[in-house]
Amino acid sequence: MKNGILWLILKALFPVLFNAVFFLADIQPKNASVWISYVFVHSAYVLLLLTPRFTVRSRSAALFGTTLGGLGLFFFLAELALGSVLIAVRPEGWRTAFFLQLVLSVFHIAALTSTMLADQHTAGGETVREAELRTFKGLLYEMRRAVDEAGEGEEARLLRRTYDLMASSPVRSHPSVLDIERDLEAAIRALPRVGASGENREDIARRAEEIQRLIRERNHLLKRT
């Protein structure tokens, strides 16, 4: 609650100071160009305050927020400087003040939008990467458990070689290998049941060789992408 009040006071400092100078200074006449600049300066400040709401939620949110915040601050200071000059000069007519600040605002919004889209693309890539890591690590865990349940013997060594092959495979995925990964997941999750039910070594070896084949096929396709 206290922090919220402090932030509110801090955010109110600029409009209070700016309006105090604007209305107490002897700026006469306050023509259309002056009021247009007044509105643009306040609009730029409001947009600066709203910028954190546009930050993409992801692991890099702090970096995204810094980028957007810096961009918003740069354009706000540029608008403040331009608006202050126009208020002081008070050009005749409203077109000059309006179009100069409109161009700056368009650049501001365009830069903000393009940065947000780039951040969303980066965050989407992070989400895909994290999903791939979770899926592949889950399969590695299942394979490791199958190795542990196999105990000792030839079948255990075969499963261990299969695990090592999988552990050295790329974590990243690709649409071209999704079917293989589904088959790989089904084959790996069947292995603990094979070991637990005491089926013969030939069955375990057959399943392990099938997993190795799928892993090699997946690796081959990933190298081509």
UniProtKB/TrEMBL annotation:
The chain crosses the membrane at residues 6-25, 32-50, 62-89, 96-118. Keywords: Membrane, Transmembrane, Transmembrane helix. This is Uncharacterized protein. It comes from Fretibacterium fastidiosum.
